[in-house]
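Supplementary Text 2. Reproducibility record for the structural model of the 137-residue chain.

All settings were left at their defaults, and a single model was retained for analysis rather than an ensemble. We include the record here because the model underlies the residue-level annotations in Supplementary Table 4.
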Amino acid sequence: MLAQIIPVHVEKELPTNTPPNSRVPWPFAVACCLYYLLAYRGLANAAPILAKLHEGLGTALPLPTRLLMAGYSWLLPLCFGGAVILTIFKQFVPLEKPHLRAVNLILIFLAVVLPSLVIFVFYLPLFDLIWKLQSAR
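Retained model, structure tokens:
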């Protein structure tokens, strides 16, 4: 009789063998995709400007910088476009825990490490020039 008067909140428990929902909310996925596209646009716009800067320095470019300058037009769209596709793929396909971890590690690498690494490689000739000037003292 008391249960009819006072509503009782009953929580449903997940069975122990059911994995938690691995999907992130759609607004977060859209924000990640926008970040990938903006990071690509920024790096793709900076590459020709830095190429002109490197031509004016008159020093030999390090190998990583030469490789990046030669392949930025296809490498950056491939990486950041792949990140967008992987983020959307993750929304539709439920992944098992090991696969989910692998996808998350790839996305973290593409979001955090790759832009920083590309900027570092673009600035390697400047660091080399500073090193040579410092050694000439």
